[in-house]
Each structure stands twice: as structure tokens, then as C-alpha cells.
Amino acid sequence: MAKTKSRKFHKIKIHHNRWLIWAIAYVVFVGIALTGYLKIANISLDSENSGQNIFVAAHSYSAPSLGFTLRYPADWSIESDSTTSVTFLPTDGAESGVTVSVMAPSAEKSIRKTLKVSEESRTTVDGISAAKITNDLGNGYTETVVMAISNHLLYVVRGSDNFVQNLLVTFHFLPLSK
Question: CATH 3.10.560.10: does it fit domain 58-173?
């Protein structure tokens, strides 16, 4: 009789704490997923809050001769001091409004000399890079000054930060009409 060769199957050793390892892996996975969800939820909450700052009832203002259009709150009034400047004022008079001035780009240096800059950063206005300056007015008051160059003109938007930001969301440059 022939000797039969018995085959030994290799036994796979399973760690005696395999369920503990799987439980730890599951907890780590759920923790990472929950952290990611909370970060996304915070971002969406922030965007919901900023959406409340955008004016709901609004009128359109268009100045083809100055090269811009924007939307402003329906309960605000407009004052035009000159042919190059327009001021949008809240009717309650509690705060000053927002002034949009249009001038030669060379005026930027003289404007900067009049400002007491406490902070400066970059922003965009209708897709164009602009300087956003926080001007210290003293006694704890500040104003936001945004300067952008378009149509070979300097556009200067000044007022309280909240009002300026809300108007700039709707600000668009127009081709200049002669």
C-alpha cells in the first residue's frame, strides 16, 4: 500500500481580541465622520447667518455715466452731492450710509493719505481685485473703504462695514457711457 500523504492546511491564526480591534476601528471611523459633519454644519450655519444680512426689499440704482449699478434697501434715500459721488442713506438716520465715488486712479494716493489705516486686506468687487481698508475714525468708530479700479477709473465705496459689504454683493461695473 502506498503511503498517503496527508495535507496539512495552514491554520490562520485569528487574534483573540479581534472584536475589540473591530470595535475600535468602528469608533474611530464614526468619530471622523461625525467631526466632518459638524464642520460642514458649522459652515452652512455661517452661510445662513450671512444670508440674513443681505437686503430683501431693494431698489436698483444704475449710473451709466459713472459706470456702475447696485441694489440698495428700499427704505433708503439717495443723495447726489456731485456728478462723481452718490450717497445711499438709511431713512432712520441712526447711521451714516454708503458713499460711492468715482475718480481718476491717481487720486488713490491722496485718499490713502487722509486715512488712518488700522487694517488692510484684499477683496473682490464684481470679480475685480480691490483694496479693503478699515479706517480708524477715532473714539472707537471705524469705516470700511473699498477701492477698485475698473474702466480706467477708481471706485471708492465708504461706509460702515455691514452696509458696504451688503451693497458690494450687488455692485456691478458697467461699460462707461459717454
Answer: no
